[in-house]
Amino acid sequence: MRVFDWKTRGSEAPALEGLDLGSLSKSPGSAHRAARKGRGISAGQGATCGFGTRGQKSRSGHSTRPGFEGGQIPLYRRLPKFVGRPTGPGHTKTEYEIIKVSALNQLDDGAEVDYAALLAARAVSKSKRKLNKVVGAADKLTVKNLKVRAHAFTSSARAEIEALGGSCIELSPTTGEPVAA
Prior knowledge:
Elements: H1 75-78, E1 97-100, E2 112-113, H2 115-120, E3 132-135, E4 147-150, E5 152-153, H3 155-163, E6 167-170
Parallel strand pairs: 1-3, 2-4, 3-5, 4-6
């Protein structure tokens, strides 16, 4: 059925009524028949079926695998390895948005700190990275009793926050929920 049917233009029936994924068909002339190979010389693809007379690519079964270069070292082995390929835990690098401990000084004593609170206080700038890591800085932390929520902490940042009576709540990188320590 055509999308706009001129015959039912004035009727109340919608034009797309009988149209769904099961009733679609190809436009006339757009689809070609598959070549039937090996069915006689008069069929056009008989005898060698268009594969030539001899050689590895003319044999039955599969030809060479993707990336095979005839025995020379293939491109995927000539190039150096780099982070992220092949995939897996040993080949991935987690990128964090860095939050310095000195940025926490702009908040009040006893505050609950997360990335949204730091953005509201203009202590950090907006970032595309989803994960946050609190790191130590040259300027020391002066605010006490902070509850800091982040995806990771350096040991120096954790020690500095906990020395002033605060707590470090580590978040799961996938769900954002606190991780049970």
